[in-house]
Amino acid sequence: MNRVSVSSASAVFMKSLLLATLAFGSAAGAAEAQPAVVKADPAKGATLYESGDAARGLPACLSCHGANGNSTIVANPKLSAQFEAYTHKQLVDFTTPQRNNPVMTTYAKMLTEEDKRNIAAYLAVQKTKPGAAKNKDTVELGRKIYRGGIAEKGVAACASCHGANGAGIPVQYPRLAGQHQDYTLAQLAAFKSGARVNSPQMSTLSQRLSDAEMKAVADYIAGLR
After folding, report:
1. Class of domain 139-222
2. Domain 42-124 has CATH 1.10.760.10
3. Better pLDDT: 38 or 172
């Protein structure tokens, strides 16, 4: 009886050891299967931004967004000094129904994840060129909306998320200071119409703004620095 008990105990122990070994091996294999997070390389991002990649049919970003991300085309956003995480997120969103744009969706789908991170890292360290408000008749309305919101319409102050000077809050809210009036207005309109849906907050707020209010705040933002 003692021999049988010892043998049974040994068999149970060996079985448990074998299962544990197999489980450890599976866990280790799963860990090895996870892709390593590669640190973004601004230098590679600069090459893609400035020259594109002819072999892959990638155009240079600067043709639309200007040298160092300082777009001179009012319909195209300034990207210089934008938070790395925000730019990366937008490039990802362009590959989904969240944000559809004929040009950027096509381009973003051609980029690898590494490409997206590298370009975002490059733009984040570029110095931005200031803009200016142009409509003196609405700048005060724009200032009031940006700094104080519109309480009776449930519109929060833009500054509460994007900062008093439009510098934004890293990861959460983008930098807005100096952005082209036309571009900012177009994005507010896209949020309002539902053409752009990658920010529930902005979708809600834009629907509470009139066209005149959106124009005023977009103009005011252009003069922030």
Report:
1. mainly alpha
2. yes
3. 172
- pTM of structure: 0.83
Reference 136, options 225, 70, 222; nearest CA is: 222
Contact 100, 190 (CB under 8 A): no
Q: How far apart are CA 48 and CA 38, in angstroms?
A: 17
Question: Can you tell me which residue has the tokens 């956003």?
Answer: 77
- Between CA 94 and CA 98, with CA 173 as vertex, the angle to 5 degrees is 25
- Dig out the tokens for 163 from the structure: 């900062």
Choose among 220, 223, 224: nearest CA to 143: 220
Q: Where in the chain is the domain with CATH 1.10.760.10?
A: 42-124, 139-222
CA dihedral 177, 89, 101, 57 (to 10 degrees): 110
Closest residue by Cα to residue 116 from 141, 93, 137: 93
What span, in angstroms and rounded, lies between the C-alpha atoms of 114 and 117?
Answer: 5
Write phi, then psi, for 113 (nearest 5 degrees). Answer: -60, -40
> Which structure tokens are listed for 180?
């082209």
- At 91-146, the pLDDT tens digits run 999 999 999 999 999 999 999 999 999 999 999 999 999 999 999 999 999 999 99
